[in-house]
UniProtKB/TrEMBL annotation:
It comes from Plakobranchus ocellatus. PANTHER family: INTEGRASE CATALYTIC DOMAIN-CONTAINING PROTEIN, PROTEIN CBG26694. Gene3D superfamilies: Acid Proteases. It comes from the Eukaryota. This is Retrovirus-related pol polyprotein from transposon 17.6.
Length: 184
């Protein structure tokens, strides 16, 4: 089935279906700055999911304030998330926040607050959520800092044999222009 002329149900743009849409799924996470400023800063989260035991997700075990926590790596997330029940053994004060977190489906997640937690001995900001079924999320920045992920770039010049002739069609075609055919 061709998508040409169709409108995406996700972004309302033309010529693609929602299943192929490149727009970010979540964009409604806003955290006001600590000062009395009126401006807001927005954060995106790629997904917030429940535990998935089939092995299709990527996880990273980290020491959080002396407790082993299994984080889902989410390169689409700009913030780190920890369910409140995992904080109960930690002696940290939650700071109020007006941040709003939503899943990719638009379901609101109750944010209890935010705090700085020592992860592998280094302090990092976490949003604490009130849902014991949500998986702890290690966002893009922290995953990159801990070298859980690496950004790789490959150039065509570095590997000419791999990319040689890429995009070229070496088959010769003959185009025939028939003046008797008219377009409608």
């Amino acid at each position: 089935m061709s998508c040409m002329g169709k409108v995406c149900r996700k972004c309302q743009k033309n010529n693609h279906f929602a299943s192929q849409c490149k727009t970010k799924a979540i964009h409604d996470i806003a955290q006001p700055q600590e000062e009395s400023s009126v401006s807001d800063e927005e954060f995106d989260i790629g997904s917030v999911t429940q535990e998935n035991k089939d092995g299709s997700e990527v996880y990273y075990m980290a020491d959080v304030e002396g407790i082993d926590v299994n984080f889902k790596i989410d390169t689409g997330a700009q913030v780190n998330i920890l369910p409140y029940h995992l904080m109960k053994g930690m002696k940290h004060r939650l700071h109020q926040t007006k941040a709003k977190l939503k899943t990719y489906t638009g379901t609101a997640i109750t944010v209890k607050g935010k705090t700085d937690l020592a992860v592998n001995g280094q302090k990092h900001e976490f949003f604490i959520v009130d849902d014991k079924h949500l998986t702890p999320i290690l966002g893009y920045r922290l995953a990159k800092k801990f070298e859980v992920i690496k950004i790789m770039s490959v150039t065509i010049k570095e590997y000419p044999t791999v990319f040689g002739g890429l995009g070229k069609n070496h088959t010769k075609f003959k185009l025939i222009n028939r003046s008797s055919l008219t377009s409608h």
